[in-house]
Each structure stands twice: as C-alpha cells, then as structure tokens.
Amino acid sequence: MRDADRTVGAESREARLAWAFVLPALATIFLIALFPLAWTVWESLHVHDLRMPWRGQPFVWLANYAEAMTDGRFWGAMLHTAIFTVGTVTLELVLGLILALALNRAYRGRGLVRAAVLVPWAIPTVVAALLWRFMFDAQAGIANAVLIDIGLMERPFVWLIHAWAAWAPVILADVWKMTPFVALLLLAGLQNIDDSLYEAARIDGAGPWRQFIHVTLPLLKPAILVALIFRTLDAFRVFDLIYVLTGGGPGTSTEPIALYTFNALLQNLRFGYGSALSVIVFVVTFGLAMFYIRVLDVDLTEAGE
Amino acid sequence: MQARFGTLAAVACIVACGGGDEDGRQVITFPASAVGAEAELLQEQLERFMLERPDVRIVRRETPDAADQRHQLYVQWLNARASDPDILQLDVIWTPEFAAAGWILPLDAFAPPVSEYFPATVAANRWDGALYALPWFVDVGMLYWRTDLFERPPASLEELSRAAARSRSDGTRYGMVWQGARYEGLVTVFLEHLGAFGGQIMDADGRVVVDSNAAVRALRFMADEIYETGNVPRAALTWQEEQTRFVFQNGQAAFMRNWPYAYPLLRDSAASRVAGRFAVAPMPAAPEGEPTATLGGSQLAINANTENPEAAYAVIEYLTRPEQMLERARVVGQYPTRPALYGRPELARGLSVPPDRARRIIERAVPRPVTPVYTQLSQLLQIRLHRALTGQQEPRAALEAAAAEMRALLEKVGLAPGESAGARR
C-alpha cells in the first residue's frame, strides 16, 4: 500500500517534471505556429484595409470568405495552382523515379554523378526563375533559337504573352529544379530494398519489368508518398518562381493562389481579405496533408528509416 | 555626477520636448535615397537650409528607391501614427490616398504659391478641395523619334503608324515600342492613347468612363499596332521602360514612348547607336482627341503627426524655390514644376531635352485618376488591358469588365460619385 503510494507520488512527480521539460517547446510552438494562425483567422473576420483607414476595422463574420467565393480572380488562381501542382508533381515523380533508378546502379564515379544531379536543386529559386526567363525571352532566348534551328518554328514566339504557352517555362523550370530532390528521396528508398528480394525474384523467373512492378514499386511506396506529399504541398504554395518568371501574367493567367494572396496582403494591404485567402490556403494544404496521411496511409516514420 | 545629470536632463528633454534636440533645435526627419548624385545634392540643399534656419536640424532617413517598397514603408509608419519622418516624398499617384487616410496635412494654411506651378501638377495633389503636397519635380511621357529616318515628328497617330510602317519596310526592325508588360507603365501608355482619342479613365465627377467608345478605339488602336500593322512587336507586351530603351538605343526602333530619363542615356555615344540621331516630341493624337502625356514625378508632403509642421513646411518651401529647382535640373536633370523657369537660360544647360520642348510636353500632361484607391483601380485596369492586348479578350469586353470592377470597388469603399460618405469628409 505504502509502496503503491510512493509509486504514484513518483509517477506524478515524474509527470510534472516531464511537463516542465516540454513546456518550453509547447510554448514555442504556440507562439510561432498556433498564435499567428489564430490571429490570422481572427483578422480574416474583419475588414482591415491599411490603405483605407476610414473604413475602420469592423467585424464582418465571414464576409471576406464570401467575397473570395464570388471572386473570379480567386477561382482562377486556385485553378492555376491546381494546373501547376498536377503538372509539375506528375513530371517530377516520373522523371525523378527514372533518375533514381539510374543513380542506384553501381558504377565508378557514382558519388560525383549523384552530387552533380543535385546542382539545379541547389540554385536559389529566384536565380533559376531568371535563368528560365532569359532562356524563353522572345528575341535573345535560347528556346526560340533552338526551335527555329531545328525547323519547328519559323519566327520567334513570344512565350510569355500566351495564356497557355506561358506555362511551358514555368513548369519546365520547376521540373528542372525539383526533379533532383525527388530523385534523391526515391534513391534513399531504393537503397533500403534488400537485394535478396531481387535474387529471389530472379530465381522465380521474373524479368526486370516484373521485378520493378512487383518488388521495387511496392517497397518504394513509402518513399514515393513522402516525395508526393512534399512536392504537392510545396507546389501548392508556389510563389517566387512565378513571381519572377511571369509575374502571374499574361493578364492573370498564370497567377497562383500564393501570388494573389501576396497581392491582397502586401500590395493592396487588405489584411482582412488577404488573411481570409491565407486561411483558405492553409485549410486546403492541411486537407491535402490529411488526405495523404489518412487515405493513402503514409507512415512518415517508416519512410524516414 | 553632474555629467550624468546632464545626460538625464537631455533624455528627459528628448522625451518631453518631442521633436527637439539637446540644443533646443527643432528636428525634422526627411526620407531620402541613400546613394547617388541625388542624395548628395539633397544633402547640400538641406545643409544650406540649416544655415538659413539655425533653429532647425534636418535628419535624413534613408529609404529604398523602389516606389513599391517606399510606399509600403510609409504605410507602415503612418498606420502606426509615427511622427517620424516629418516630411514625405510622394509619388504623384499617392497623394490622394494619403490625404484621404488623414496621414498628411493640408498645406493651404501655409499659402503656397500654387499659381506658379504647372496646373496639372497642382491638380494631382488636391483632394477634397484642399492641397496636400507641393510638386517637387515632374516626369512626363514623351515620343522619342529618329531624326535620321524622318524629317519631323508625326503630327497625328495615323501619321505615326504610317511612318512606323514605312521605316520597317526600309529595314528598321520595329516601328514603335512602348511599355506593354502588366504593370503601372501599361496604364501610363494607355492613358496617352486614351487622351489621343478623346477618352478618360475617370471624368471630373469621379465617374469611371473607361468603357467609352473613345477608350475602345484607343485600345483597339494599340492592339492593331501589334497584330494588324505589326509596328509594335508582340514582345513589347513583356517590356518595361528599360527593355524599350535598349531596343531604341540599338537603333532597332523608329519610335519609342518613354520618360525623360532615357534622353541623356541615349545621347551618350559610347553606349548608344542613336546618339545625335533622335529627338523628342509630344505623343500625337487622333483627330478626335488631344496630344496627351502622362504626368509623373515627386511631391513633398507633411506627416499629419509631425510635431513641427511649421518647420517642416519651411523645408518644403525652401526645396521648391526656383533656385533649388534650377540646381536640381542642372545636377540631376530633374524637371522643374514651375513653368516660368523654362525660359531661363541656365535650364537649357541642365536639361537634356530643350526646355521649350519639354515645357510644351509638360503642359499637355494629365494626371492619372485622382482617387485614394488609384493603385487598386490601376491593377484592375492593368489586368484587363493586358488580357485585351494579349488576345485573351476583346477590347470592348475587356474595358467593360474593367469599368464594372472599378465601379464595384469605388462603391464598396464608399467613393462612388454622388455619395457623401467616408473619405469625402
């Protein structure tokens, strides 16, 4: 009985100590994550236009969200974000997987090749965006020069003034830059696959294709899902690449939601409406993350091993 | 001990006396660019002012030169009701915004000599009947033309188009270049075409009229110059000022619409292939309109929270005196806002554009719509103009959509014509 008492006392002491240890971490999370989020939500329920102080800061319930729902530019921006996300993530996964399979083979100088592949990823996004902008310049760009030389085009094409063609440099730039990152994640996954499994498959008479389908892909699933989750969430929040490359144009035909939010918040200084857009972006990315984790059953810890 | 007491007293004074320093002088803070000839000139002028007014000390507050960044910084300061900086250097399109927000003081009480300025520069700084800033220097859009290709500048838009086409068949790569990227510059170019066809963005009563037939004709003319005559290259729809200057400077364009800053650069024979082979003229008009130049430039205003409004105005009054403007023209080539100075021989030595010609263009200058929500209106218009010029929307449909969006915005913020609410106090 007294022993039990002592144990309970020790346990609660230990629990208190544990709380004391995690408290700084919890406080930090509260301060840098939850508090700003709550403030943004609160802000999104007000009219707060820095440039129009005479409007005051009235509480307007969900009026900012209602405005977003009827705002054509908002829906356009969501559509552009979806186009960008689906386009880039698909290409990056396919190319990244091919690249990872190639890098996984044993050959001399493999370390050097692996490092070289990462170069695009190491270039700052703004610099990469400027490079691609120059390459797709109508007059001096290499893209037009090459296409004319090989006879695919007669005269220079102005990529950035066409609502659809302007996507080409945007998507290519992102694929060029982020494929190495995907490849690296998948390569780590590939190296976790036990060689004896391939040996067993070979003994059972499976060719390279069947080995890929029945051994590599299932065992690579956690790594693929991690790559997918990273890239989807990143692509959904794309900002700097498009800001520099097209500025969202022509018109607003390549404007993603992050750029529109930036425009509302920091250019028009509409804190209420901009916050509402931020909250929407947060909810959608959170939902996407939940979808991956619950529906596709990603175990982040398993993949990290 | 005594020294410490002295320090304490000084600190107490700074806290209690507000805008004064330890010698009892009034301190005025002035935001300015950090580097370059302009910063040096300003420093000299402010030092001379302090000799004249030993009771005032001016402290420069270094601010970014990029207009958007400067604007954002101002808005943050002014929202926080900061009394520092006391004086604000404003872009011409910001004055009504800051005035309606109550961030800057009306200047009428100081009886500034408004009749001595170009009327358009004064009109751009009025809001709700009061004057809120004094024009410091002026910027206008002008037509650069090649004297080796033509004998005289075109007298009408039609003549401009024909001359551009002729020069192209004679081997010049582009007929005409202007700033067609989706940014504020596109609105300034459109405004000049709009005036040339007799249209306006907003009328005198503050009504949006950018969907008029004249406006549709103006926008159609711009689109036709790209897609029908081919005088304006499609790539111009991605160009800002500098790209058009490079093209003109390399001798690849017969005409260019640009600001005066390009003139001295184009005259520099080390870098420019058209040195000595170009001149400027007003942008021409169609028969139904007037030659029009978009007004730009810098203004000086006083922070509404300043503790020393009188001293702040004294600084502004000093910097806008004729001698200071002449010096500014001579040293950094900025155009005075006082028409009388354009007859002075010193000015011809300072400005690259011959003063009588510059004056004629500035007299044609029209301000962009004078409204506190100009920036937002301009963005709505930029998007629709760019959609029309890149072939995503018909000019009339684009302008009707722009006008509807602009009217809805004015309605929402209580600035629609006929309303007495809000900012029209």
UniProtKB/TrEMBL annotation, chain B:
Record-level GO cellular component terms: ATP-binding cassette (ABC) transporter complex, substrate-binding subunit-containing
GO BP term, example: maltodextrin transmembrane transport
Signal peptide annotation: none
Keyword Protein biosynthesis: no
Keywords: Signal, Transport
Molecular-function GO terms, alphabetical: maltose binding
Highest taxon of source: Bacteria
Annotated InterPro entries: SBP (IPR006059)
Family: Belongs to the bacterial solute-binding protein 1 family.
Protein name as catalogued: ABC transporter substrate-binding protein
